[in-house]
Amino acid sequence: MIRSLLIANRGEIACRVIRTARRLGIRTVAVHSDADARALHVREADESVHVGPSPARESYLLGERIIAAAKETGAEAIHPGYGFLSENADFAEAVIESGLIWVGPKPQSIRAMGLKDAAKKLMAEAGVPVTPGYLGEEQAPERLQAEADAIGYPVLIKAVAGGGGKGMRKVNASGEFAEMLASCKREAAASFGDDRVLIEKYIERPRHIEVQVFGDAHGNVVHLFERDCSLQRRHQKVIEEAPAPGMDEATRAAVCEAAVKAARAVDYVGAGTIEFIADGSQGLRADRIWFMEMNTRLQVEHPVTEEITGEDLVEWQLRVAAGETLPKRQDELAIQGHAIEARLYAEDPVNQFLPSTGRLDHFDLPRTLRIETGVEEGDRISPWYDPMIAKLVSHGPSRAWAIDELVGALEAVEVWPVRTNAAFLARAAADADFRAGEVDTGFIPSKLESLLPDPAPSEGVWNMAAAAMLAVDFGEDGEGDPWSALAGFRANAAEAARISLSHAGTTRTIEADAERPLEGVATASGGSVLVFSDGQAFAFTLPGAAGSSGAGDALDGAVQSPMPGRVIAVDVSAGTKVERGQKLVTLEAMKMEHSLTAPFAGIVTELNVAEGAQVSEGALLVRIEKGEGE
Ligand code: ADP
Ligand code: ADP
Ligand code: MG
User: CB within 10 Å: which end of the chain, N or C, has fewer?
Assistant: First the structure.
């Protein structure tokens, strides 16, 4: 077995790998950037090496520097996690050439699956059903348009080098094709340095079904059943589960067999995922499931597979990398119960899902289910990396049971002042259609309005805040914890008492009723109360108290960059007349695109950025003045 392992990643996946390595008695070496000098994965590893400044391009993506770190610390093997260098065949090759063990598939397998068009051709040759479409070399716009017309609309244009939900455009009609193609190619060139595209039939009622596969160096390949990842926002997975709802045995056998065939076709060693797209309009049927792509690494959602099979996939990876045979044969693997994972993001759903950064003054996740996280209370969410801060994974005897557990846990999430999508996830998982297994990739977009929580506190939350505020002895505050916890608190005053409170600019006088049952948890400190309820957090202050929520952005027309990032589009120029909510600038930060919009109708009086500009947090990008005109 491997005795020492360098983990070329950060956050929850680095912590996840360290946990298994430790259990197996393997010494662990972390790498970190400036921003992560005191991060949890660094604290948990036996040793840590600083590899560069905060931007990933200057630290976590520096293959040579990471290999040198492994050499310096005497690590025998490198685990890449997911993202970063995990699907970089050149890096895998360099690791192997330097005499280290690469915990991943052969570089040639990564290469074979790296481009979507080549992968689809290979799969078609191997007899795996692939999404109908055009995979040709010829990229002239006229030719692509003709192919799309022949396939029939809607179609999906996909960057052959794409990933992470980027470089994709759905085209509904022939007349829109040219424009969509141009914008897809622009995005693909900017994001992947390769503007080639393929065209696919857009599958109706699409469901994302993927199969976990595993190979060893002795020619064995097994599958560990399927996952359903249909709940997506902007083509990115939000909630994943295993097994897929409504999957019958015959269909499962067919899709899992196709996945094993796909893995064998590229001589696969290690953990991989074969992604399929299914037409769910008539339930899941074997003749309506097509190969989409292969991810040649461990997947973010691997825990749901671990839960239903009882296996540790990181342990499997390490054993296979050490040359052992697969720990189980196909006939020794079975599905037990149902598991669901929700991705907790540091983002604000009621503010266009903008990432939320800062110190986690309060970070308390329920202990009733499996949690994968890379942060603890007191840590900072920096603007440099992916905003995923934790995964909540429920597992139970039935799907209904797993949903109940997950919803309860999401509603009990307590995070402040960083914003999270917990309430949004809870609403999605509690939705009646989701419970009924009525899932497809249009689920979140079509229900978005009803999944967004109300940013204003409910009556119950106001009452809870008032009761908590009345119970605090302000005089003795200021020592120890910044917040004195009042979990399960009830006001002990016999009669109702009155108190005035403010939340995000709204002040109300509340009659706090000691007899009313309280839902949620409140914590208070001098002059402020925090209420956690159904996954949301609300901050209240006494009227006139300084330093309130900051949620009411200055409405003076100064549009500032909420975080460091790169400007990828500017939609206005100085003098442009804009409507309230009109898109001004698109920023790429924390791996996501964010539109910054006009706070009110007016005229652009200042424009300080151009496409491609790197901007820092707080930079004044655009100024709008209320227009008198017309
Ligand atoms: P997974 O299914 O493992 O999440 P995807 O195929 O959805 O992988 O995404 C590809 C890679 O993009 C993942 O390895 C992951 O590290 C990275 N990624 C994760 N979250 C985001 C995000 N919000 N935006 C862009 N890329 C992301
Ligand atoms: P990425 O590399 O970005 O993960 P994928 O090819 O895996 O790209 O596609 C990402 C998502 O886009 C899928 O999970 C699915 O929701 C949607 N999608 C992809 N192909 C199709 C298609 N042909 N029809 C409908 N939806 C699709
Ligand atoms: Mg994918």
Answer: C
